[in-house]
Amino acid sequence: MGQRDFKRVPMHFNWPIDRIWKGYLNPVCGPRECECCHGTGLNNGAARTEECKKCGGSGETRMPRKKKKAYRKWKEYDPPVGEGWQLWETCTEGSPQSPVFATPQQLAEWCAKNAFVFANEGATYEQWLRMILTDSADVNSLLVLRSDGYVGSIANAP
Ligand SMILES: [Zn+2]
């Protein structure tokens, strides 16, 4: 996974910029590292290394069964899909980085002014547009960016 991603989201999608999408964070706290053995499951006894008694060798603190079940049952889910275009970062679990735009061109324009590919390196409008279109391309609706300026699906290309 790269550090940026382009998503198709509904035009009215208004998850706050920079906040990790709720579908990528498990709302149930997971098991924590056992503080007795620091997650190794082993402790140094007087004579030899033995299974940590506090966590029974699992390296994790015990969780109530119900909670554990809820934690395991939870599944990650993507934001809703729609007509809009939006820049996301994937350095964390994933959060929106731009407003939602109606076209890839508008998003590319915004990115050229406001976003960076690497630490400080910006990209031009054309570079952004190409990245947006290649990332979003799939077999059913392949979008092309041609040298004559045409942007759209191959099926509809003049
Ligand atoms: Zn332990």
Give a quick rundown of the structure.
This protein is of the alpha+beta class. It has helices at 65-73, 104-114, 125-136; strands spanning 4-9, 42-44, 49-51, 84-89, 95-96, 143-145, 151-153. The chain contains 3 helices and 7 strands, in the order E-E-E-H-E-E-H-H-E-E.
Helix content: 10-25%
Kindly name the structural category.
alpha+beta
Tell me about the largest β-sheet: 3 strands, antiparallel
The geometry reads as: elongated
Kindly list the characteristics that best describe this protein.
158 residues; alpha+beta; two-stranded antiparallel ribbon; 20% helix; binds zinc ion
Q: Explain this structure to me?
A:
The strands form three sheets. Strands 1-4-5 form a three-stranded antiparallel β-sheet. The protein has two domains: 97 residues, no CATH class; 32 residues, no CATH class. It starts with a strand and ends in a 5-residue tail after the last strand. The longest helix is centred in the last third of the chain and has 12 residues. A hairpin with a 4-residue loop joins strand 2 and strand 3. It has three helices and seven strands; from the N terminus they run E-E-E-H-E-E-H-H-E-E. It has 158 residues and is an alpha+beta fold. Helix 2 packs across helix 3.
